[in-house]
Specification:
This protein has 344 residues and is an alpha/beta fold. The chain contains 15 helices and 11 strands. It has 2 domains: 183 residues, 3-Layer(aba) Sandwich (Rossmann fold); 121 residues, Orthogonal Bundle (Arc Repressor Mutant, subunit A).
Length: 344
């Protein structure tokens, strides 16, 4: 495997993308295009990439696009960097053959990476032990529950020695730019970013977006801090008075911020976060309902089931059995309606 050094690289880096069934196409494209542009701007081949999958000739993405494969798992190929492209239902799509192939590539000295939920495959193959890594927020609950010994974070991407992992979407573009900055002059990296209309190269210390609130409260630091406190204290919920005190606001001021920016009362929003975590635990882990009740800050299974049924329209037990996540539209529309009716 080539060492990561600045300046010219003697031969092209060989990159293999292992596509899981239902992989996210945007993540794959965001990772490949920086290499394509780097080759174009350098007027020589700095990178070679190949697509690998368990299918005979193609792999299907989450949006139904069929991608032709360059190799199957049975082909004897070697790479400098192997990147798993995850997507929907990663726990079910990863197969033993995928894990065996990943271990073989790692044993041969390849650097290993993952996009979106692909970190689950690396973790399942035992290739993330002792490493810090990132993954899409929708997969973090599953990962932390199944692999407690791995240091998962909430960063956009992580490059830790010979492991590089990221959250998905367009973030692979930024991770690949960071990788390139260790191998090539900054002028080339900047040129790639400019060609891809990337106005700002996001760093690995940036946190991934949390659904619903992050964009809305970007200009409201105190509200953002309260939401982070709520996220960090789901098992033992903090009292509203304590939340307000932590950010030097009165309870009334905090309620006004929630109504103005999130159209909800703090208590109802806090409940939504706890139910959201409960739903993920139900869908992604084998934890019992009693355990989930405690982990999400409910005093009893009766109280938890009543709240869950009210806002999800189905009991926790039934929702787990269905296999399809219950929608939050009813709850969210109710939050908006309540926010519109309540006045500061």
């Amino acid at each position: 495997m080539n060492s990561g050094v600045s300046g010219a690289v003697r031969r092209a880096q060989r990159v293999g993308f292992l596509l899981m069934d239902q992989f996210t196409l945007i993540s794959l494209s965001s990772a490949i295009d920086p290499m394509r542009v780097a080759n174009l701007l350098s007027d020589r081949e700095l990178y070679q990439w190949r697509l690998i999958g368990s299918g005979e000739s193609e792999q299907v993405s989450s949006d139904g696009v069929r991608v032709k494969l360059d190799h199957t798992l049975s082909d004897d190929v070697e790479f400098d960097l192997v990147i798993v492209v995850g997507g929907i239902d990663i726990e079910r799509t990863v197969q033993k053959a995928d894990l065996a192939w990943l271990r073989k590539q790692s044993q041969r000295g390849a650097q290993m990476g993952a996009l979106c939920t692909g970190s689950y495959a690396l973790a399942s193959a035992g290739l993330l032990n002792g490493y810090e890594c990132s993954a899409h927020w929708d997969c973090l609950t599953l990962l932390t529950e199944q692999f407690p010994g791995i240091d998962f974070n909430s960063q956009l991407y992580t490059i830790d020695r010979d492991r590089m992992t990221c959250t998905g979407g367009t973030v692979p573009l930024h991770m690949m730019l960071a990788m390139m900055s260790k191998r090539h002059p900054q002028s080339l990296v900047d040129g790639v970013a400019d060609m891809l209309v990337c106005e700002r190269h996001r760093t690995d210390v940036e946190m991934q977006v949390i659904p619903m609130w992050s964009r809305k409260v970007e200009v409201q630091p105190k509200l953002k801090e309260v939401l982070q406190l709520m996220e960090a204290n789901l098992e033992e919920p903090l009292a509203l008075q304590d939340l307000a005190k932590y950010v030097d606001l009165s309870r009334r001021q905090l309620e006004r911020l929630f109504l103005k920016h999130l159209h909800s009362t703090p208590s109802r929003y806090y409940l939504k976060l706890r139910l959201d975590r409960a739903r993920r635990l139900l869908k992604q882990t084998s934890r019992s309902i009693v355990e989930i009740t405690s982990m999400c800050g409910f005093v009893s299974t009766t109280h938890f089931s009543r709240c869950y049924r009210k806002y999800m329209g189905v009991s926790p037990k039934s929702d787990r059995a269905q296999g399809i996540p219950a929608a939050f539209q009813i709850f969210e529309s109710e939050l908006r309606a309540e926010g519109a009716e309540l006045k500061p």
